[in-house]
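User: Thanks for the earlier help. One more: NUD19 protein. Can you show the sequence and predicted structure together?

Assistant: Of course, both are below.
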Amino acid sequence: LQWSSPPEAIELFKSQEIWFPPPQFYELCRLCNFSSLSQLHKFSSERAPEGCERWMPVLLTASDGYIQLLPGDELYPEDPDYTGEKKISMSTDKKVEDLMKEGSTFHRIVIKNIHSLAVYVNIQAEYKHMNPLMINCDSSDYNSKL
């Protein structure tokens, strides 16, 4: 067992020394906004009365990877399948790079493979929350539209 700060954990993930799933990667990117535990505690205490929202990532399968769409993203469905009963599947023959170049409103995690994740967010966070830092684990750069 090893303790690591969020930036250190992301670096360990990038070097493939550890692995965590996309939602945890997203939250570690969010935690990178804070330089200390006391700063995080202060933010959390002040933001807590605002409430929270329920999220359901929606997976979009592209020809060369995946995109987890989150609320606020332009491709996020109006009525996501919260229970899994609808068996909705979103897919496209387009490449991830093309989807990123065509888009303009992002709240997503791009997944090229299990060790290549990237967070892209250019929307205002709800409930006075903090957006994650946009971190990309590979050399692809889709920031031109952000």
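User: Great, one quick takeaway?

Assistant: The CA atoms of residues 85 and 108 lie 23 Å apart.
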